[in-house]
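Dataset card, provenance and construction

Sequences and ligand SMILES were collected as paired inputs. For each pair, a complete structure of the chain with the small molecule in place was predicted and serialized as structure tokens. The example below shows a pair involving zinc ion. Curators did not alter the output after generation; any descriptive sentences attached to a record were derived from the structure itself.
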Amino acid sequence: MTVTADVAATISALRREVCALHAELTRYRLVVWTAGNVSARVPGHELLVIKPSGVSYDELTPENMVVCDLDGRVVEGLHAPSSDTEAQAYVYRELPHVGGVVHTHSTYATAWAARGEPVPCVLTMCADEFGGEIPVGPFAVIGDDSIGRGIVDTLRDSRSPAVLMRNHGVFTIGPTPRAAVKAAVMCEDVARTTHISRQLGAPLPIEQEHVDALHDRYQNVYGQRPAGADQGRQP
Ligand SMILES: [Zn+2]
């Protein structure tokens, strides 16, 4: 498969966007060393753009992002793609509404994943962003499509854009790569606050009707706001 001129401009823009979004992972301290990654679907094409494998965050450039097909094969790029490419390609194949995928081992969320325990919905921001608890996916090893299958099986019928893959870390999805990054940031924040609350006592659950109302309101408000104005809350 070759990249034709009509998609070259789209890919060029996505290379810049995906590269820039990696700075959010370090800014919010969601990753260490070369772990973690962001990818984007190339809309209208069976392609994705993803971080190269083993390149430090300081050395990421739009040019060293890697373009792969949705079987994880490199189409354009000088580096090998992230070792999570197969898992993310599986997600794009199975969930057509997904435009971006993020993976981190962020500390608090991954601590919940290590116990195989979902993060309960005890904060309004959890209801807003995740529509309920943040679910746990199965234990899976790199090397086949079991990580991708675990992500898809857990998130397909969930309102949550985040899954805690057991003993591993966080995968988030979104309609755009930026939305998936936001979900990864929020996931860590919710996991951290809920953990701290637990140290002080038993967090109080939020009634289901309130969870539903918060989620509906937040998702609708979000959808009506102009692009780029997604940081923060309605008064
Ligand atoms: Zn990982």
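Derived descriptions for this record:
Helices lie at 5-27, 85-94, 107-115, 124-130, 146-155, 177-200, 208-224.
The chain is about 45% helix and 15% strand.
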